[in-house]
Amino acid sequence: MHGLTRLFLGILCxxxxxxxxxxxSATGRAAFTRYHDPKRAVDxxxxxxxxxxFADTGLEDETGPMEKLPNQFTLGLLPSGPDRHMVSLATLSxxxxxxxxxxAIGPLFRKxxxxxxxxxxxxxx
Length: 125
Known about the structure:
Layout: H1 3-26, E1 30-32, H2 38-46, H3 50-53, H4 60-63, E2 76-78, H5 89-105, H6 115-124
Helix pairs in contact: 1-5
């Protein structure tokens, strides 16, 4: 592979990885991928608040208020399931990362022609 082609493919791989990192950062840097759930949105709209629902249970006595998970799309660092939740930073950046690794170490394994073979080819021409 020529040097210019190798450089172009390397830059392209880095841009795909950078784009995935920017999307992950823009959607909240979640650990796992989540999508908007319309059913959960209806349930949240009907309920007054989690504090009112669980007031008699004593859940908030020692630990403080419960954490709320946003009901929106967040690209996760890792996938959270085998279906549409498979999309994540890891799965988006793994193929270009492997291609970048192959581009980087590929020249190390290329066979170099021997000096004697080169000189004999030069004599024949």
